[in-house]
Amino acid sequence: MSQPSVFDTPVSPRQNHDEYHDALKRATDAIAPVWPLDQWIAVNPWWGLKNQPIEQVSHALSRMAGQPMTMPAEFYRKAWETGRITPQDLQEALFQGGYADSEQSLVGYLASPPSPVTPLRSAWEMMEGHTGFDPLAESCASYFDQHQQRWANRSAPSLYHFWKTTAQHDLRWPKTQRKALQALPNNATAAIEQIAADWALAPDVFEVLAHTLLLRVNGWAAWCQGIGWHTPHQQEEAGITQLAAIVLAWEWLGVAQLTSTQQSEWRAQWQTVDAAVPPQHKALWCWQHAFELGYQRELADVLAAPSQSPPSAPEVMAAFCIDVRSERFRRHLEHAAPTVTTLGVAGFFAMPVADAVIGPERAQPRVPGLLKPRYRVGFPQPQQQGVQRYQKESLRQSVRHAKYAPLSTFTLVETTGIAWGWKLIKDSLRKQAPMASCDAPAGLFHTYGGEPIARQEKVALAKSLLTLLGTPTASLLVLVGHDSQSDNNPHHAGLACGACGGQGGGMNARVAAALLNDSDVQQAVIKAGVSLPSPFYVLAATHCTLTDRVHVYRDEKMPKALETALLSFESAAQNAGNTTRQERAPALGVNASDHTKRLKTLAMRGADWSQPRPEWGLVNNAALILAPRALTQGKSLEGRAFLHDYHPAQDPDGKILEGLMMAPMLVASWINLQYYASTVVPKLYGAGNKLLHSVVGGHMGVIEGNSPQLRIGLPEQSLRDGDKLHHEPLRLTVVIDAPKERIETIIARQPVVADLINHRWLWLTRMGDKGLERYSPEGWQPIAAV
User: Can you say whether residue 321 is alpha, beta or left, with left for phi > 0 and alpha for psi between -120 and 50 degrees?
Assistant: First the structure.
């Protein structure tokens, strides 16, 4: 503490507190949120930076965290040598991207890439044997972990106050450091202002510094940011501004321990941050561009091929979630049953609900993360049965809490050892994970207030879903949600769904089916101009993405005349499951020789406690197609495309397309960029090795090994099989079947969409008269097929 400070320069009048708070707000907004494990939502970790070109963000990230947003040069060299990137791809990337390079210079770059950019260093990283930022991560884990901690924390008014109080009594740190901390205010805002005044950095430099420091505890920063999204009432005392105050205070302590020379070096590096993207960085992005063009050429070739015509009068229409895993099954189902036609729609089926079952557990939202559930699902349950269920769940919850009580180490195992031993044996002998199930709903109720929803609300929900599905032409409509099965898997929700709060779509399908079967609702939508066949009935089903089995929730009220069509659908679904499993099995290393053994092996993967990869999830996702099914029917998209039906002729004003570009497109982009980020920047945005995970807070997230840093994104086992990478890191290619003018009008009207497209966070294409063509602000450019 005896070292003189180089930050005694008085703050100029223009560098007032508001400027620093604005700079800090920009820094915190650059951190994307995360959700709890049991409400998993795939997130684009660069969402807060979408208003900047992706290459510029990548360069800034390499400066702040030492990790650019592209693969290493070796990755592109192998793709070039194996023909995955062709000379045509590279030339097209040079032309379309406006890169100031030649093919020769780019190939030479891969042979001898220059040294990586030297990253910015915090004060702690400038010291030998530095402590780093793990102490801050430990404080976050202790503050937020109200489920697993052994001793209860004292009440603290805020995260920052909790850290400052505990740090002052942490005997691991020198007394001078603990004493210096007392000089900072107990209030986060006041502390930030004092530190900013002491350093007297320019506001834009202060922004870069704050963002860099938050990246040192990126997982916890994302968690604190997420509080403002999913738990906003806790934002003031535990949001990301509180964590920003902590990292700034920690850096303030570190700077004070540097020598005068080191302090000068520390200050100088922040003031010389160069936003210009260096040539070598652009070269890697040109290779990434070419890598993505290679996929787009293959996609253009597939889409240009003749399509199979869907049945003109189908017996069954089956609506699946747009999830990429549905693409394989839909293709095989239509082949197995020519009288069945399939549709693609967002898997929550336009039902913004929460599943509030009886019991002590909190309600689970069953909507995309950017939406809030407006209704809760009610269940028919006799009073006595409800009481018994509540008591059973309360007992389970009591045992969970007892496991983590201070004295449980000495008493719980001895008291319940035999019972727990039997449970372990029983679960270990189970041959497969239980099929996901959901009870039939009794009705919908308002989330706040609890009263049943009104007739006009039911009709509005039904019309919204039927608008997305198009005009039903079959008397039997099956809404197929999807779910997954796996035991001992903290990331189970990420396999269930990448969008809808980590919940399967079966409940949403049952709610929607009950709503559409309401005769009063049917009459109302018909009067509103929606044409429905007669008879018309809707059933719900669940597609298990682990085993590719479809379970239909039968309904005694279904007209008997539809029984034959239902039996035909169930038989076709069984055949489709067989062929889909056969297609998926090699990538999972399943070498069973027949359908029965293959199904048994896959089902056992879900019940195996030691299986880190029950299925591949949404690995290799690469495209979103908004078009009639006729464009893709009978064509193999290799389980890489999200498929959402869109009929341009039924949307002359573009309102439906605008909704699709503002919802499913954003969700698909979030999923795509989470996989991309976990692959190209795994240390920062990946969850690490699943075998070393420990769950924090029961459901908050995971840490790896003995590190207190919260890991976000996808674990290695969801991307790699040993050393082999199973996910191709590609930005999403969106294909739309619509007129140019309609698409361009939406881009001009929606800044979020414009940012994603114009700054290259995704690629926008459309089906033109001569094939696939890609949008750029300068116009539409054709993509030649392979």
Answer: beta
Give the separation between CA 678 and CA 680, rounded to whole angstroms.
Answer: 6
Report the candidate in 554, 735, 535 with the shortest Cα–Cα distance to residue 628: 735
If one compares 525 and 470, the residue with the highest pLDDT of the two is: 525
Task: Give the separation between CA 508 and CA 465, rounded to whole angstroms.
Answer: 12
User: 322 burial class (0-12, 13-18, 19+ CB within 10 angstroms)?
Assistant: buried
Picking from 570, 596, 615, the residue at the C-terminal end of a domain is: 615
Range of the domain at 46: 17-52+120-271
Neighbouring-strand partners of residue 537? 476
> Is residue 440 located within the same domain as residue 578?
yes
Q: Which residue ranges make up the annotated binding site?
A: 321, 323, 482, 497
Q: Which residues are annotated as a binding site for Zn(2+)?
A: 321, 323, 482, 497
Q: Confidence class of residue 397 from pLDDT cuts 50, 70 and 90?
A: low
Of the listed ranges 351-355, 399-403, 476-480, 725-729, the one predicted with least confidence: 399-403
694 pLDDT exceeds 60? yes
Q: Would 670 be classed as within a structural domain?
A: yes
Neighbouring residues of 299: CB distance < 8 A, sequence distance ≥ 6: 622, 623, 637, 641, 733, 735, 772
CA 452, 453, 456, 462 torsion: positive or negative? Answer: negative
Number of C-beta neighbours around residue 184 at 10 A: 21
pLDDT at 12: 46
pLDDT per residue over 557-579, tens digit each? Answer: 999 999 999 999 999 999 999 99
Sheet holding 353-355, edge to edge: 364-365, 353-355, 375-378, 443-446
Euclidean distance between CA atoms 83 and 775, whole angstroms: 26
Of the listed ranges 266-270, 377-381, 472-476, 683-687, the one predicted with least confidence? 377-381
Please tell me the distance from the alpha carbon of residue 689 to that of residue 681, in angstroms, as a whole number.
14
Strand, helix or coil for residue 211: helix
Could you tell me the sign of the dihedral formed by the alpha carbons of 50, 56, 60, 66, in that order?
A: positive
pLDDT attached to residue 232? 87
603 and 631 housed in the same domain: no
Give the mean pLDDT of 267-285. 82
C-beta neighbour count of 68 within 10 angstroms: 23
Condensed to tens digits (0 to 9), the pLDDT of residues 725-734 reads: 999 999 999 9
Q: Which residue has the tokens 């040294």?
A: 115
